[in-house]
Design a protein that fits this description.
2 strands, two-stranded antiparallel sheet, 15 helices, single chain, mainly alpha, 334 residues
Length: 334
């Protein structure tokens, strides 16, 4: 039962992280693309597409981080010292971006400063998240159930590559979101941006995927050992299908298809991470069972999660239902 509870909680934390990446990814992407938009009206419209939902999207970040601390305290105690810098940068960047959402509507003379804050916060949050992911994938040094690495172990060519890849991927998600949610000049601009961010994302994700198995013998065995290879080959095949759906959606002007294909790309990449990591929570040293809290704590917290998670899903779904469809340039959130 201990393993079952730890496994259930690992699934819940993984779901929360994936939900955050997908839901906050497109509004971070809108911020990343913000400098390439021309005209105040177009920028206002782009921001209005995410303004009603952006803060609710970040609920999943709180749930994932708080859940990690409560349910897998040893993993939290090891991962945080290893990734202090990128995590702090990410949180500060999200603060800058969140403040910009509200303040840019309250000023005319200083509006450009909040535009810069919105872009800077989105870009740095995406970069920090990608670097943290790359550092986790390449492995964290552990000795005696504590972090044993240096202050700069998180910074490497591979982690920088994953940071750049995530910036492009979030930019792609932001572009496809704008294609789905807008008409006119913003949609035209977003379609153009979706093409080059899509190409860059596929190249960079492919490069990261090719490098990852060679970072750790465990990853290599998981991806290319027999019979695992019969299953793992399905992931790149499915990514190819998603890419074809993305291209067809842009070509045939089916505005929702590129966004859905991009979500599929994120989900499949997340599945690829799961194939590499499982059963490790902190690769290559600590498994899910190693870092789990006592059984009593897992039961107590699971009771709360069974109430809280459906509530979050319900109000998130309701918010997206209320603000469904194309955004009217004459209306919006102010």
């Amino acid at each position: 039962m201990e393993f079952d509870l730890a496994f259930i909680w690992a699934g819940l934390i993984a779901f929360a992280v994936l939900a955050y990446v997908i839901l906050d990814g497109f509004d971070l992407g809108v911020g990343i693309l913000f400098p390439f938009m021309r005209g105040e009206a177009n920028k206002d419209l782009a921001m209005n597409t995410v303004a009603p939902v952006w803060d609710g999207n970040e609920t999943w970040l709180v749930l994932g981080g708080g859940g990690l601390f409560a349910v897998f305290p040893l993993a939290y105690a090891v991962i945080m010292p290893a990734l202090y810098v990128p995590i702090i940068v990410m949180l500060l960047a999200l603060v800058f971006r969140g403040v910009a959402f509200e303040f840019r509507w309250r000023t005319t003379r200083g509006k450009f400063l909040w535009d810069v804050s919105f872009t800077f916060g989105s870009f740095m949050a995406a970069l920090a998240q990608g670097i943290a992911l790359g550092a986790l994938v390449q492995g964290i040094a552990v000795e005696g159930r504590a972090y044993a690495g240096g202050n700069w172990d998180w910074l490497s060519p591979f982690s920088v590559l994953t940071g750049v890849a995530l910036i492009c991927a979030y930019g792609l998600m932001g572009a496809t979101w704008l294609v789905m949610k807008t008409d006119g000049p913003v949609r035209t601009m977003a379609r153009r941006m979706a093409k080059w961010t899509g190409a860059a994302t596929l190249v960079l994700v492919g490069l990261v995927s090719l490098i990852t198995p060679f970072l750790n013998p465990l990853y290599l065995e998981r991806w290319f050992g027999f019979p695992n290879v019969l299953f793992s080959v399905m992931v790149p095949a499915a990514i190819l299908v998603a890419a074809l759906v993305f291209i067809k959606g842009l070509r045939d002007e089916r505005d929702a298809w590129p966004f859905l294909a991009t979500i599929a790309l994120f989900v499949l990449s997340f599945v690829g991470l799961g194939i590499s990591f499982y059963p490790y929570m902190v690769p290559p040293s600590l498994t899910i069972r190693d870092v789990a809290a006592p059984d009593e704590s897992l039961w107590f917290l699971l009771a709360g999660a069974l109430v809280l998670v459906p509530m979050i899903l319900a109000y998130t779904g309701y918010a997206y239902w209320v603000f469904r469809g194309k955004v009217d340039p004459a209306g919006g959130y102010h």
